[in-house]
Design a protein that fits this description.
Mean pLDDT: 76
Low-confidence stretches: none
Shape: elongated
Largest sheet: none
Number of helices: 9
Structural class: mainly alpha
Distance between the termini: 94 Å
Order of helices and strands: HHHHHHHHH
């Protein structure tokens, strides 16, 4: 007994019922379905893991960048405070006539007006929010490309991490254009669309033939719904080359000619059989 038999028993079937339903074909179909289910489950788990890793990396990057941005802002505040302190000291020296002392200290009446800014590698909270929005769109586009690849190439999965590394190594503008060109997706996509169109046409044709066959069987199989046609063997038939009957039905004769004609023919037939003459 195989896995299909075990599945039936585990699902509540009796041993006799499971044995009756068990067959090599059923076992093969069950294993194929189980394999597809396991593959889908693994791909789903891999996607969940990749998403979790990506989210963790984004959170770590945000925490690190936020700390550095805060430090940069504190440095700017400290620099401005130091500049204000120097300016206040210079003004006090000027008031007290101690400009020479101020010069000896290296202070000038107009200190350099340079405002410290954060390092270019730090970004503001607004820029960070905008970056996260763009990253979300990029991630969704990657997911869409994986889904389309699996549909165009059944049984295959697109490793976006590997494709991203390859695109960077080969100097591609972005991973999407790289994958599109590498697998010639435009041609494959057009071929898949044409196949779907032909399958749809074949489906409609098959449904039309089946509907026509059903209608024909319904009409012709039932004498009450069958279309009327001329009878091949009518009860009353007109005789050709008969001056009395040609072109007329029996009920059209009202002058007794048919009766007289039948009587004459019967007498002639009797004389022919009995006396050899008519």
């Amino acid at each position: 007994m195989g896995k299909w038999y075990d599945h039936l028993v585990a699902s509540g079937s009796t041993a006799e019922e499971a044995k009756a339903l068990d067959s090599p074909a059923a076992e093969k179909a069950f294993l194929a379905i189980a394999g597809e289910r396991d593959t889908f489950k693994k791909n789903f788990e891999d996607s969940e893991t990749n998403l979790k890793n990506y989210e963790d990396s984004v959170q770590n990057w945000y925490k690190d960048s936020s700390a550095k941005l805060t430090q940069a802002q504190n440095d700017v505040i400290a620099a401005r405070a130091e500049e204000a302190r120097h300016k206040a000291a210079l003004e006090a020296a000027q008031k007290q006539g101690l400009l020479d002392v101020a010069k000896d200290l290296g202070w000038t009446p107009d200190p350099p007006k340079k405002e410290l800014t954060g390092d270019e590698k730090y970004i503001s909270r607004e820029d960070f929010g905008r970056l996260m929005g763009e990253a979300g769109g990029t991630f969704a586009r990657m997911s869409d490309m994986q889904t389309e690849y699996s549909r165009l190439f059944p049984g295959q999965n697109l490793n976006m991490s590997q494709e991203l590394a390859e695109s960077k190594a080969k100097g591609a503008a972005n991973v999407f254009d790289y994958v599109e060109k590498k697998y010639n997706l435009s041609t494959v996509r057009a071929a898949a669309a044409e196949k779907a169109r032909q399958d749809e046409i074949a489906k409609y044709r098959a449904e039309g033939r089946k509907e026509a066959e059903t209608e024909f069987a319904s009409k012709m199989g039932n004498p009450f719904t069958r279309p009327g046609v001329p009878s091949q063997k009518p009860i009353f038939q007109t005789r050709n080359n008969d001056a009395v009957r040609e072109g007329k039905q029996p009920w059209d004769q009202v002058d007794g000619k048919l009766h007289e004609d039948r009587t004459a023919k019967a007498i002639a037939k009797y004389n022919e059989r009995n006396f050899g003459t008519n």
